């Protein structure tokens, strides 16, 4: 079969490129194609560790799962992890390259071009259809020179392009028309269709506008995708916390840190009908919380300073005094300790800060990152109840945490060392393991303990998290197949 590709670009960020790419991957897979996703450059704090210890963007992992294939770092050769308003940690082929400002990164783009092309070629050797995702807006004309992720990428691999616009934001016709008209003639020639995403209402009312737009830019509308809600991991944190209504029996509170990372850790709670995740943005948001989670952070020291300055650190300690459970994940685990030190400015310009002192620990942020998948066993008491389960997860951290006194560990890892800690009162738990709540048995025991404390009946778990994710991908595939002209997309791929 001839190598085929298609690229989805957007009129802006968060228009639905990632989820539609995942959906197209699932539909093509169901049609018998050996399909894989690709995104040359990702900017996100949600990342994943592959089996060979490489770090890549979570969005391409989701897309690989939708395609029913194992994620490989070549699907996302460059990952930018913002650590400040102007700087990011640059991950190249799954490993830390260096910290760069936006200006520095732009200057270094030419040297990344060959790396991206080699990564794409490796994916293309293994798969016969590649669904490529762009980034942000394709009409960022100030960044067109040395572009590696939108039209520059399409040119590099000679791919046709489909443009996605978000009607939920308003102005979709103008954004699609304006984007198209800002492109050069040769770029316009690559644009083979557009998609209107997140539509609510009667599509018949939209059709006159679609016809007028098609006449103006002379490319067809390939589909109108309805607004939908599925529990599929997001690429970024833009929409966190928008749906909380406090109507469920158990409320899991997650601190909405400025540099929150890997918030996909909490997606598994969404499959429990009596559990709701509430993102805490101020001291006023601690009401009704049954379990408090301090999540991962790309800038642990500055996020700890943020908790102090906003009064949320004080509220966390008050919450602790009420004998309710607290769990810290990765950077959150570091914040639960006594002190965090970064004398090498590896993450922050702030050299050190005191933590919450719920553990007597010191964490030193180093320039070496630990990226590894792990398995282990939990056999502890937490909140007066036994917690015993085999677990797996992955570590992504640059800090090394040392204890200043004897303590109880959280997980005995198969590779031989211990991870995490539990305080003496057995109501505070910390771990470096991302994905810890993906483990069905551990999550069920934890939630059942909370249910018993609240006098709520425990639940029978009939669906695993992996099975739950698959139900979401199945539903996504159905939506895409019904509302997107997949036959036309295949025609474009074959004829371009």
Number of domains: 2
How much of the sequence is in beta strands?
Answer: 25-35%
**Largest β sheet strand count, sense and barrel closure:** 6 strands, parallel
Helices and strands: which structural class?
A: alpha/beta
Share of helical residues: 25-40%
- Provide the low-confidence segments as ranges: none
Instruction: Give the CATH class of the largest domain.
Output: Alpha Beta
Please tell me the overall pLDDT.
Answer: 92
* CATH superfamily grouping of the largest domain: P-loop containing nucleotide triphosphate hydrolases
- Based on the structure given, which CATH architecture of the largest domain is correct? 3-Layer(aba) Sandwich
| CATH topology term of the largest domain | Rossmann fold
Per DSSP, the total helix count is 13
Describe this structure in words.
This protein is an alpha/beta fold and 496 residues long. The chain has two domains: 254 residues, P-loop containing nucleotide triphosphate hydrolases (Rossmann fold, 3-Layer(aba) Sandwich), CATH 3.40.50; 206 residues, Rossmann fold (3-Layer(aba) Sandwich), CATH 3.40.50. The protein is 30% helix and 29% strand. It contains 13 helices and 26 strands. It has a six-stranded parallel beta sheet, sandwiched between helices. A six-stranded mixed beta sheet has the order 15-13-16-18-26-25. Strands 19, 20, 21, 22, 23 and 24 form a six-stranded mixed beta sheet that branches. The two termini are 15 Å apart. The mean pLDDT is 92.
């Amino acid at each position: 079969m001839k190598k085929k590709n298609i690229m989805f670009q957007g009129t802006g960020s968060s228009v639905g490129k990632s989820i539609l790419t995942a959906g197209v991957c699932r539909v093509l897979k169901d049609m018998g194609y050996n399909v894989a996703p690709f995104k040359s450059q990702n900017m996100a704090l949600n990342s994943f560790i592959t089996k060979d210890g490489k770090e890549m963007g979570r969005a391409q992992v989701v897309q690989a799962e939708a395609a029913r294939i194992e994620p490989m770092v070549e699907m996302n050769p460059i990952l930018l992890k913002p650590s400040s308003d102007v700087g990011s940690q640059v991950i190249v082929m799954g490993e830390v390259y260096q910290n760069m400002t936006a200006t520095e990164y732009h200057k270094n783009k030419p040297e990344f071009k060959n790396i991206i092309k080699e990564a794409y070629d490796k994916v293309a050797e293994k798969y016969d259809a590649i669904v490529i995702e762009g980034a942000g807006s394709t009409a960022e004309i100030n960044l067109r020179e040395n572009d590696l992720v939108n039209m520059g990428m399409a040119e590099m691999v000679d791919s046709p392009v489909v443009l996605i616009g978000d009607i939920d934001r308003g102005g979709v016709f103008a954004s699609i028309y304006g984007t198209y008209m800002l492109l050069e003639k040769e770029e316009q020639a690559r644009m083979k269709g557009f998609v209107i995403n997140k539509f609510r209402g009667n599509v018949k009312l939209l059709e006159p506008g679609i016809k007028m737009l098609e006449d103006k830019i002379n490319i067809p509308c390939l589909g109108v995708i309805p607004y939908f809600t599925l529990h599929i991991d997001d690429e970024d944190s833009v929409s966190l916390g928008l749906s909380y209504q406090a109507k469920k029996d158990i409320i899991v509170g997650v601190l909405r840190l400025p540099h929150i990372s890997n918030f996909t850790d909490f997606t598994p709670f969404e499959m429990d009908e009596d559990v709701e995740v509430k993102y805490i943005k101020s001291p006023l948001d601690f009401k009704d919380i049954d379990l408090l989670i301090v999540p991962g952070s790309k800038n642990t020291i500055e996020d700890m300073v943020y908790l102090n300055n906003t009064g949320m650190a004080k509220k966390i300690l008050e919450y602790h005094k009420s004998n309710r459970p607290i769990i810290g994940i990765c950077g959150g685990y570091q914040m639960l300790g006594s002190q965090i030190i970064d004398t090498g400015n590896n993450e922050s310009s702030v050299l050190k800060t005191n933590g919450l002192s719920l553990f007597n620990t010191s964490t030193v942020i180093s320039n070496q990152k630990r990226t590894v998948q792990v398995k282990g066993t939990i056999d502890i008491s937490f909140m007066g109840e036994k917690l015993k389960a085999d677990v797996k997860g992955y570590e992504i951290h640059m800090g090394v945490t040392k204890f200043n006194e004897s303590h109880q560990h959280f997980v005995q890892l198969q590779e031989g060392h211990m991870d995490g800690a539990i305080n003496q009162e057995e109501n505070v738990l910390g771990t470096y393991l991302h994905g810890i709540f993906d483990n069905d048995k551990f999550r069920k025991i934890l939630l059942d303990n909370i249910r018993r404390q609240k006098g709520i009946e425990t639940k029978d778990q009939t669906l695993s998290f992996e099975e739950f994710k698959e139900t979401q991908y199945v539903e996504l595939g159905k939506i895409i197949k019904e509302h997107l002209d997949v036959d036309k997309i295949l025609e474009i791929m074959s004829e371009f």
